[in-house]
Design goal:
With 140 residues, the chain is α+β, with helices and mostly antiparallel strands. The chain has a single domain (23-130), classed as Nuclear Transport Factor 2, Chain: A (Roll), CATH 3.10.450.50. 45% of the residues lie in helices and 24% in strands. The chain has helices spanning 2-18, 24-39, 46-52, 60-68, 121-130, 136-139, and strands at residues 75-84, 89-98, 101-102, 106-113, 116-119. Strands 1, 2, 3, 4 and 5 form a five-stranded antiparallel sheet that branches. It is globular and about 40 Å long.
């Protein structure tokens, strides 16, 4: 009887310890949300944006062109939801805001590249295409 009590006490103690850690998916979702909101912030530096984008160096001229627009200083993004699709890809529903105006909700991707979550390049290309142009970086 005493052995059973000890075993039960250990089981409860282990269960209590296991319940205190956050699931990995919550950490990933928080990182993706942060990445998206930083990337689309008008306050984020060009070098930081490049680092936050999948294959960022390839899109340096696209990022510079976007940032050089005076309206870009008032741009922000708000992530509505993140849905993980495996260990290295996620769907991101987000809204781009310019001052008090918002675009309709956009669907983008996030990818884990070299262990870090980044804005999927296709997400940027899709937004740029809304303006009627497709940069060469988006064609390859």
């Amino acid at each position: 009887m005493r052995r059973l009590a000890i075993v039960l006490a250990l089981v409860f103690a282990l269960a209590a310890c296991g319940g205190s850690s956050k699931p990995k998916s919550s950490d990933d979702q928080a990182q993706i949300t942060s990445t998206y909101e930083k990337f689309f912030s008008g306050k984020t530096s060009l070098s930081d944006r490049e680092a936050l984008l999948e294959n960022g160096p390839k899109f340096k001229s696209v990022i510079q062109s976007f940032a050089s627009n005076p309206l870009a200083k008032n741009v922000s993004a708000k992530v509505a939801s993140v849905t993980l699709h495996g260990a290295n890809k996620a769907r991101v529903d987000f809204t781009i805001r310019l001052g008090g105006t918002s675009l309709p909700t956009q669907v983008g991707t996030a990818v884990r590249q070299n262990g870090t979550w980044k804005v999927g390049a296709a997400s940027l290309c899709k937004l740029v295409a809304l303006g009627g142009t497709t940069p060469s970086a988006c064609k390859s």
